[in-house]
Amino acid sequence: MPKVLVSDPIDQAGLDILAQVAQVDVKTKLPPEELVQIISNYDALMIRSGTKVTSEVIEAASQLKIIGRAGVGVDNIDVAAATRRGIVVVNSPEGNTIAAAEHALAMMLSLSRNIPEADKSVKESAWNRKQFTGVEVYKKILGVVGLGKIGSHVATVARSMGMTILAYDPFISKERAAELNCSLVDLDLLFQEADYITLHIPKTKETAHLINAEALAKMKPTTRIINCARGGIIDEAALYDALKNGVIAGAALDVYEAEPLGESALRELGKSVVLTPHLGASTTEAQINVAVDVAEQIRDVLLGLPARSAVNIPGLRPDVLEKLRPYLQLAETLGNLVGQLAGGRVEQVQIRLQGELANQDSKPIVIATLKGLLTNALRERVNYVNASIEAKERGIKVIETRDASIKDFTGSLYVSAQGSLGEHSVTGVILGGSEVRITDINQFPINVPPTKYMLFTLHRDMPGIIGKIGSLLGSFNVNIASMQVGRQIVRGDAVMVLSIDDPLPDGILEEITKVPGIRDAYTVAL
Ligand SMILES: NC(=O)C1=CN([C@@H]2O[C@H](COP(=O)(O)OP(=O)(O)OC[C@H]3O[C@@H](n4cnc5c(N)ncnc54)[C@H](O)[C@@H]3O)[C@@H](O)[C@H]2O)C=CC1
Ligand SMILES: O=C(O)CCC(=O)C(=O)O
Question: What's the topology of domain 452-525?
Fold first, then answer.
């Protein structure tokens, strides 16, 4: 039975799903060195934001197939290292959207009405009404930085509270912003105009310290800023100075440059700051959503099925996957076949989606082809996660084309590999919804199902040659299951494809190439 390590608190609903297919060990608050020590025992790791999955953890994770992040941000996982090792990383892109958006809105209102400080004072037996006079959000301008899932929900609710929304998101269209009743503006204008600024962007090289001293200086002295996205988007030292010196009026933070928040001058700023300990996703509903979402994906991957929200392989909707699945098998088979025909080092692969297949998402098909191509060299080390990287690292140039006008079957896939020993091409189709057929080898039309052991010859189409190959194989006790010849013209060049029951014994390929008329012979194990 596979083993899953759950190293952060995860809702029981998720654990129950994992338990259907695996032994589940819940070990939270593990010191990093202990995680490195035990991770080699596990097939899957499920985390929230507490566990840091560093490259050391991934190096030690010899069995690991999947890392599931019960949440959105995967910045606590070294995704590049996981990808290199062929480990799938999945998250729950939508499970906590509402929770995070509502937390940002709650932070905005808490800050505006001094709720945390007022609450604290009443609990300390005081009754200071004047000290806690707040401001309204009605008719104020809210600047939303990042109009994705969370930012959109914040914008929609804020609109209903009478706020005007300015949004900055270079990857969102004007039309989408208009649908949300937001005006897309540049960042400087948003900084200058907004009464409230709320951040809903990932932390990237571009967004690190996006809110720095220079940005803060552009804001109004009445501006209040909310960060429920990621620590490090705000320069905390600059924020402290800006709050202390009245450059802006307030800040509400859920996330920090270092978590848990250690010693920080921000704690001394009284009612101008509201601080929560990364609670954005901490609702009962969100924790069930993300736990179930990620546990289901871990279960599926352990059962050999694809994950729906993998961050390091193209995600496919189940209905799309269902349609594409036979073509992924076809792509893998053709990649493997052409890789073996090419023999030596492959320098360039051409992948052409033809006929109806030309209208499909090519990315998974390309990845499946590369996986097949590299299988001979890398065996189980290559998978859907790392096939593209492995191909890139080997300097294989991948050319992807489409041709919807080729209508020989409903959809076909052409793959050619050019390498140190020459160029070979294969075409294949799916028959009857699931059966792989090879329909062309090196421009010779054939119609053969791929089998485990195959022998291919390139030869002159002349009498007697097929018989000679048959007798030769017989003399080596090789049983032929089926045979087919493809040719373009009578007595020209031809290709012969034989399915054989066992691997070809050593030395026989050389004997075959000595038969008069045989130009080349290849053996393939699929
Ligand atoms: N505090 C918490 O507990 C939680 C925090 N989060 C964080 O909230 C953030 C947003 O999450 P979602 O809305 O689900 O993500 P999303 O991917 O739906 O939206 C992010 C948006 O940011 C935009 N963006 C990317 N780079 C940008 C840039 N340089 N400038 C402006 N916009 C940029 C993207 O175009 C996208 O529209 C993430 O960082 C996520 O990790 C999410 C859930 C809970
Ligand atoms: O797991 C958590 O509570 C953190 C959620 C979060 O930050 C995220 O989903 O990006």
Answer: Alpha-Beta Plaits (3.30.70)
Query: Which neighbouring-strand residues pair with 348?
Result: 397, 418
Residues 6+ apart with CB under 8 A from 69: 47, 48, 76, 77, 89, 90, 91, 92, 294
Q: Is 151 in the pocket of ligand 1 (CB under 6 A)?
A: yes
- Reading the block at residue 476, the tokens are 């080596």
Give me the residues of the chain with pLDDT under 70, please: 314-319, 321
Please tell me the number of the ligand nearest to residue 148's CA: 1
Q: Is 114 left (phi over 0), alpha (psi -120 to 50) or beta?
A: left
State residue 428's pLDDT score: 96
Considering the segment(s) 3-94+285-303 as one domain, its CATH architecture is: 3-Layer(aba) Sandwich (3.40)
CA of 73 to the centre of ligand 2 (A): 6
Residue 315, pLDDT score: 60
ipTM: 0.99
Which of these CATH numbers, 3.50.50.60, 3.30.1330.90, 3.40.47.10, 2.30.140.10, describes 313-450? Answer: 3.30.1330.90
Residue nearest (by alpha carbon) to ligand 1 atom 41: 73
Instruction: List the catalytic residue out of 85, 278, 352, 459.
Output: 278
Instruction: Please state the pTM of the whole predicted model.
Output: 0.76
Where are the CATH 3.30.1330.90 domain residues in the chain? 313-450
Q: What is the pLDDT of residues 74-120, one digit of tens each?
A: 999 999 899 888 899 999 999 999 999 999 999 999 999 999 999 99
